[in-house]
């Protein structure tokens, strides 16, 4: 398997991203994410579980409910989000995800990127700065 071929060193991570997470039945997503995190855990491989909104067709709170459900059913994986901006909610969804203990946000500079664009990391950082939280970025 791929996991057996990866050096078991803290510098390496394997990332899994269920491409249609936001459009897949939650129970099925949970099973897939659970098995990924479990295999990484028992093989002592560092893992990142990226939960994308590939087509933003729901509000932030609905996505957060799904994210929190998955979070309760995984082993030791770092959680990450990749939020598209079809409904202009990517910044709020990313902020709420971080507040929900997500450790990584995948995004773009100025929101330019795939299709409708992704979360703008600069907008996200400036929102945190305005909330009194130092994003530790030099502008």
Produce a short descriptive summary.
With 139 residues, the chain is of the alpha/beta class. The chain has a single domain, classed as TIM Barrel. The protein contains five helices and four strands.
Main sheet properties: 4 strands, parallel
CATH class: Alpha Beta
Helix percent reads 25-40%
Give me the CATH superfamily. Answer: Aldolase class I
Low-confidence stretches: none
User: How many helices in DSSP terms?
Assistant: 5
Query: What is the CATH topology descriptor?
Result: TIM Barrel
Mean pLDDT across all amino acids: 86
Strand content is: 15-25%
Model description:
The protein has a single domain (2-130), classed as Aldolase class I (TIM Barrel), CATH 3.20.20.70. Helix 3 packs parallel to helix 4. It is built from 5 helices and 4 strands; from the N terminus they run H-E-H-E-H-E-H-E-H. With 139 residues, it is an alpha/beta fold. Strand 3, helix 4 (90-99) and strand 4 form a beta-alpha-beta unit. Strands 1-2-3-4 form a 4-stranded parallel sheet, covered by helices on one side. This is 2-isopropylmalate synthase.
Provide key terms for this protein.
single chain, 139 residues, alpha/beta, TIM Barrel, 4-stranded parallel sheet, 5 helices, 38% helix, globular
């Amino acid at each position: 398997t791929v996991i057996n071929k990866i050096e078991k060193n803290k510098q390496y991570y394997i990332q899994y991203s269920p491409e249609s997470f936001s459009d897949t039945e939650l129970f099925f997503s949970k099973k897939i994410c659970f098995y990924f995190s479990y295999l990484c855990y028992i093989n002592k491989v560092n893992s990142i579980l990226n939960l994308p909104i590939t087509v933003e067709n729901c509000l932030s709170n609905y996505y957060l409910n799904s994210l929190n459900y998955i979070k309760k059913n995984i082993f030791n994986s770092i959680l990450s989000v990749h939020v598209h901006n079809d409904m202009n909610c990517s910044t709020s969804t990313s902020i709420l995800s971080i507040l929900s203990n997500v450790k990584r946000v995948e995004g773009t500079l100025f929101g330019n990127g795939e299709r409708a664009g992704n979360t703008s990391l600069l907008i996200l950082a400036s929102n945190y700065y305005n909330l009194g939280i130092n994003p530790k970025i030099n502008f």
